[in-house]
Automatic annotation (TrEMBL):
Keywords: ATP-binding, Kinase, Lipid biosynthesis, Lipid metabolism, Magnesium, Metal-binding, Nucleotide-binding, Phospholipid biosynthesis, Phospholipid metabolism, Transferase. This is YegS/Rv2252/BmrU family lipid kinase. Coiled coil: none annotated. One of its GO terms (cellular component) is plasma membrane. GO terms for molecular function: ATP binding; ATP-dependent diacylglycerol kinase activity; metal ion binding. The keyword Transferase applies. Belongs to the diacylglycerol/lipid kinase family.
Amino acid sequence: MPSTQRRLVVAINPAASFGRHLSVGPEVARRLAAEGYDVSIAREANWELLEREVRHAVSLGTDGLVVVGGDGMATLGVNALVGTDIPLGIVAAGTGNDFARALGLPFEDPMAGLDHLLGALERDAVPVDTALVRHGDQEISYGCVLSAGFDARVNERANRMRRPRGASRYTIALVRELATFRPRRYRLTIDDGEPRELGAMLISVANGTSIGGGMRIVPQASLDDGLLDVFVVHPISKLELLRVFPKVFAGTHIDHPAVEFVQAKRVRLESEDAVAYADGERIGALPVEVEVRPASLRVFR
């Protein structure tokens, strides 16, 4: 039990992992209260109301925000807390859980995640980098990866599918998208360098390591190096793309001749025929500008 009672806001996504973990949020709140924390719950019927409730709860003052769910909930927490001294805790209960993976948190068993959080609450919160993406007048922070290209198109297709419910939906969408996909033309600007015109299957701007529930597109990425990692897959055949993608899960694709990595503090990405997703959330059609924000978020790790 904490030596002095600390206040925690617990934000719950009732649709976490398509409803498979509906009981996790209440159990997190119950366990934290049993450990002596002053717990308030933020749970609303839709995403917009939940974001508003979380920001309001944080504005009233708290010693930490705990989000229960997947990468969407992690993104909600990042955007509510980035640039503040209030730490973020994550109990991963979603489908992909890529930000939890990048942080080294349990990502397959929510109860293991809760046990880890209880220990982390007794330690000092750790600063990590975030990335800020600008899209028109919109500014959104993310923790893991922004992508524009083949994988973003797969996300678009998967989001339109009603079945199956679960991680296999992404795999099915990937196979279907492959049938019609072609390389896109991009204009890529790194820091203050000259714009570069190129064709690519996809371009990602990574703060963390993975997308799509463990696809380790940038296995060498670090959350505390003050840098973004730009990942480019140059044009290859569809057959070769199918050969490369399984290697991405293991992070063994980094030596493939069609793969390129560049580190940056700022990135501008333009295209007339591509959309961007950040940690699974749709940002919109390019162009976008991304910059790293070093040590801008404190997390219970």
